[in-house]
Write a structure and sequence with these properties.
By secondary structure, the protein is α/β, with parallel strands linked by helices. It is built from five helices and six strands. It has a six-stranded mixed beta sheet, sandwiched between helices. α3 packs across α4 and α4 crosses α5. The relative contact order is 0.20. The structure holds adenosine-5-diphosphoribose (APR). Adenosine-5-diphosphoribose binds next to β2 and α1.
Amino acid sequence: MTIFKIFKGDICSLAVDAIVNAANNSLLGGGGVDGAIHRAAGPALLDYCRDLDGCETGDAKLSPSFLLPANYVIHTVGPIWRGGYENEAALLASCYQRCVELARQQGIQSLAFPAISCGVYAYPHEVATRIAIDALSASIASSGNRNTIEEITLVAYSDQMLAHWQAALTFSRSEY
Ligand code: APR
């Protein structure tokens, strides 16, 4: 049974098994949550990521967390919002699903996500959070008793995003 939680604040502060980074294709750091995670993890994270050889949009790669309280960082690259006709929804769903797959392979039991693509990449927040919850719910349901993830935390960095996560979770629960 996987429980969903919502947390408002800095994802870097969470002492969960893994935090997810909303990275770019280079995996060499940036602004937003990517910048915050690299700052908090220390320079060893960048050195490690240099050897990961980048990451495709919709894919995810695992690294140690170095100075962060979490044990791992799962770097994923969300789609840039370009109007919704360039496969953005499928690519965003894929980010969440690939992160769950990597977490399961690593035996990760607690995982925290920022709102992928909802900052610099400008994905509309309401639909992005619904895609996230649907993708996570589908991943968990499809893994059945192979599911090792006990807790998923959805992180909001603003009251507005908090409200979107709450609405998306409520909507999802009304569906299942
Ligand atoms: N903790 C949790 N959430 C955060 C934090 C933080 N410390 N900092 C920012 N956020 C939130 C943003 O408010 C937004 O809701 O994370 C969400 C994702 O925003 P971005 O970090 O801008 O990520 P994204 O929209 O996926 O764009 C990725 O931005 O930083 C660059 O290198 C990154 O090129 C990549 C692009």
